[in-house]
Amino acid sequence: MPSLSPAHLAEWTQGTWTCEPHQLIQSVCQDTRHIQSGALYVALHGERVDGHDYFPQARAAGAVASLGLKGRGGAELPCLEVEDVGQALMAISKGYREVLTPRKMIGVTGSAGKTTIKDLITSMLSQAGPTCSTKGNWNNFVGLPLSLLAMEDSDVFGVFELGMNQVGEIAALTEILKPEVGLISSIGEAHLEHLGTVSAIAEEKGSLLARLPVDGVAILDRDTPWYPALRGRCLCGCLSVSLKEDADYRGTLREEGLQIDDAQREERFVVPLPLPGDHMVTNVLQAVAVARECGLSAEEIIAGLRAYTSAPMRWQCGDLREWSFINDAYNANPLSMRKSIETFASLVHEGEKWLVLGGMGELGEEAQALHGQLGHELDKHGFDGVVLVGEKAAWIGEGILQTRTLYANTHAQAAETIVSDVPSGAHLLLKGSRSEAVEKILQILEKPKEKIL
Prior knowledge:
This protein has 18 helices and 20 strands. With 453 residues, the chain is an alpha/beta fold. Strand 15 and strand 16 form a beta hairpin.
């Protein structure tokens, strides 16, 4: 990031320095384990950790200043004291956004697939110029500002993910990012606990489109039933993608990959598919449309897709003991869970195929019913068995009538069940919400067998 002056930071945040630093700020960080020399340390106050307690560690790690609450500045570092540290962090990122001059800034949101699409776009755009993107899934009021503040003025493109679980969050995040290109990956049953209905989720996601500039562009999927409503939110130009009908970008599956028909440029080319699944086909089509709107050639797009690697715990394949596994355990909602299970079912494997599932969070009053519906649907795939981990996952079993179902209360019990009941050579899919941390089962399975049973 370009250097930030203490005066600008005070102006943007309406804060007051306990004593003004004598040097420019070179980076912004909230974690003392990752601070670099010249950093502004952000003392966030969470439920379990108060960042104000870590001023000494921040200074030792190389921080030259801090951002903290009024009256809480420490003697270790010059502190910019503010009324609300989180709001001040957002104000700094807004001020910083005003001085950035990338060729294109892209905002991505959706109920499922947004991180994958963000990473696909980033991999392609990186072929054409320096590109900054969201770190992992840092897509909230802390993560987006920190990701944005890592952007260099020399970066040509910025690709950032916008997440939410409350009404109004997408609008607020869009005001920080100010993207010229907007994309909604999908609409589905996520965060129902706070938004109530899928229609409300679509309305919230559409806030990104409503705030794109008049000369911006929205990339919309014609194959979703939400297409008309989302298009109606746009004040800018809209470009459509489709796997089923005519569109600005039409995708057709071929043996060698996904054929892209670019109607605007009257150009046709075939791109590789980095991962299996029908949802990955749609993800790639949407990401390619963004890349084309950013000026990339077919050759650059193909090279970027070949260079793509999936993020940890997102369809991460491996072998452990006598089994092969797919770790897709980063997060889950009914839409993403269904897509992962369907893709897993379509894979050819000589041995047995098992699911290891945790529950899905933030579904509100419909949680038990939605879990049960998922169980009813997975019966049709003919899996050899399913291990359900935890109280919420047990609700999935209420809908299962045919598939062999085993239950575990803890990760340790799940590992023991796998060792005892899943035969050698089986293929396992692990999936669940982040709160379920299903990936811990793999860590336990790395132990010697006698320590598991």
